[in-house]
Amino acid sequence: MQAIRRALSSETVSGWAFVLPSFALIALFGLIPIGWALLLSLQKSNLISPETPFVGLANYRALAHDPLFRETLGHMLIYTGLFVPISIVAALGVAVALNRSVWFIRLYRTAFFVPVVASTIATSIMFLWLFDKNFGLANFLLGKVGLGPFGFFDSPSNGALYSIVAVTVWGWIGFDVIIYLAALQGIPRELLEAAEIDGAGRWSTFRNVTVPLLGPATMLLIVWSSINAFQLFDEVYFITKGGPLNHTLVPVLYLFQLAFQQGIAGYAAAIAYVLFFFILLLTVVQFWVGNRVVHYSS
Amino acid sequence: MKRTWFLLSVVLGVVAAACTSSKGANPQSASPGGASSAQSASSGEVVNITLWHGYEAPAPGGPPNYEAISLKNLIDTFNATHPTIQVRDVFCCSNDFALQKLTVALQGDKQPDIAYEYGSSMPQLATTPKVVDLTQRVNDPSYAWDDFFPGERAVTTVDGKVLGIPALVDNLAIVYNQTLFDKVGLSYPSSDWTWDEFRAAAKALTVPAAKQFGWSFPADASEDTVWHYDAMLWEAGGDILTSDNKKAAFDSPAGLEALTALQEMAVTDKAVFVDLQNSGKADTLFNSGKIGMMVTGPWALPSYPDVKYGVQIMPSFPGGNHQTIAGPDNWVLFDNGPARVDAAWTFMKWFTAPEQVLADSLACGHLPTRASVGSMPGFASFGTKYPGVGAFVANLSNVLKARPQISTYPKISTAMGQAIVSVLLGQASPQEALSKAAQEVDTTLSIP
């Protein structure tokens, strides 16, 4: 009796009681689908037919010879290579600019965050018209200064992908800015003062004190933005639908089209697992590098 | 270091969850209203059945949805006159997602008794034994199955089995801006127009300085792109696949003639608004007087309140005839036990009888799915009540062919869509594009 009561009041039990609701949800909507997707990737299935023959690794083998899948990986890498550095560097600049007390500062900070909470569908429709080749405001204004007209989403080359980069940087920069603002306000004042007393200029202080101290935040943003970039979907789904001529087709959109428009779900699940593996690999590499470059923990 | 690993595992958990949720059949989208009622009913008991549709109730204060009202009224009438069967209608989702919703419902054995589905979804639906084979039932002479248009019947049928009942039929015709035609002194499209005359008109209506285009073509390489081309292909005398569905047939002189016509208008004349995103822009531009002609269906007419428009059947190629393409949608029945299947069929038989089809057409402007409705006395008022739609009704008799109802069709459509868009963008010649697409299609079809 005593033993049971002691066991029940122990930290282990109460700890598990606290995490159980979250654990159940993650298991139901996370772990079970992950396991099921693995099974699916080894089958031939359209999600409708009860017949799901086991095909072993055939889906994965076919993937290795799918030129379109390789193309989507290329687009994903180009997109990530642009989106991650541009959004992080721009966010750092904005955060530094917003990290001061001027009039209406809260208004400016809010303004940068609005795109993050705005509906992607709404902003996509806005950009469709803004960047329209013939009728868009962007080409109108660029025309005023003698540039363009540009095709933007209509460009039958990487131009469409670059336009998607512009849209998503605009859409996500507010999130990065908030992280950097919090990190900037966590930098101890005495360190900045010490640098000043030692005779460091503003740039030197920023370069040698602020940026290194922002290391953990930058690390977080790089990892988070890269994962986000690998999973690009909403904007290409709503704006370009992968076009023109697959020039903005990325893996997640491709697997969506396969699973839900073409009824090739097993193959699509295999793509999801390959993508998962790429993200895992990238994240491990980023942490490995990060542990050698970032020296301060917040 | 410990922190790092904790963070890593959290990140991985999130990644994994996100990965699968964007891929998988997410359970949270399982919609309510599936199998909820009586499992079986002995005679005398009431059988409850559920019907899924895509007619959304209007927002409070918004304009009424006449399609939803018409459906509701008919179901109420049926329920009042058939006390042993009670039909409950459930708004499932936008029709674009009807197949996805049903996929999830089938996984959980919660399928409705009747669901509205696109004709193009039939081959995929045919792979589940839960779809009711209606072949024997529709062939009962009292049902007059032949009264439905051939193009509609073809789309309900997969491998010789009738798996659906025509729910809605549309077709493509020219919708033109009369004001723009008057401005350049062109006479309106006539019923004996050729594609050459169409091209000349499109060119005359194009004013680069005003950013005005003669025509618009959906170019997102989706099925919307492909079916616009299909109609032209058939008019030129071609076909999508060989009659045994074993090989591509569009890489033919007819296919080339149709695609070259598109190339000449889009690339040579630059008279076409090549709508690469195809997200409603073209309708807005036509309504703003920036596009002279559309090739579209009756569903688009409510989007053009600001334009004085006319409707004319599609042009023909020299020596060919005037055809069009229909995109019929179906009511599909699902097996929830014999009593409910019988009840669902009793309802469908009543619901798709000529009297009810006529009532629905008059109530909301749907084209009649049965040929005989057009000659019923009550139908005379349709043309005045729905101006413009009358031309689409007449055009139903120009629907002579249907797209192949095979499960690999989405892949065929994708290959053709890419070919058409590459020509519209001037990146490939019509012949190159057709050969490449035909090769891809042949590969797809050769896999058993």
Describe the structure.
The complex is a heterodimer of chains A (298) and B (448). Chain A is mainly alpha-helical and 298 residues long. Helices cover 74% and strands 0% of the residues of chain A. Chain A contains 14 helices and no strands. The longest helix of chain A is centred in the first third of the chain and has 32 residues, at 67-98. In chain A, 32% of the residues are buried. In chain B, 41% of the residues lie in helices and 13% in strands. Chain B contains 17 helices and twelve strands. Chain B starts with a helix and ends with a helix. The model of chain B is unreliable at 1-42 (pLDDT under 50). Chains A and B meet through helix 2, helix 6, helix 11, helix 12 and helix 13 of A and helix 1, helix 3 and helix 16 of B.
Structural class of chain A: mainly alpha
- Beta strand count of chain A: 0
User: Unreliable stretches of chain B, pLDDT < 50, 5 or more residues?
Assistant: 1-42
Give the proportion of residues in helices of chain B. 40-55%
CATH topology of the largest domain in chain B: D-Maltodextrin-Binding Protein, domain 2
Q: Given the C-alpha coordinates, what overall shape of chain B results?
A: globular
Number of domains of chain A: 1
Total of helices of chain A: 14
Characterize the main sheet of chain A.
none
Summing up helix and strand content along with how strands pair, one would put the structural category of chain B as alpha/beta
Q: How would a crystallographer describe the biggest sheet of chain B?
A: 5 strands, mixed
Residues in β-strands, percent of chain A: under 5%
Q: Could you name the ranges of chain A where pLDDT drops below 50 across 5 or more consecutive residues?
A: none
The CATH superfamily name of the largest domain in chain B is: Periplasmic binding protein-like II
- Give average pLDDT of chain A, whole number: 90
First-last Cα distance of chain A: 46 Å
CATH class of chain A: Mainly Alpha
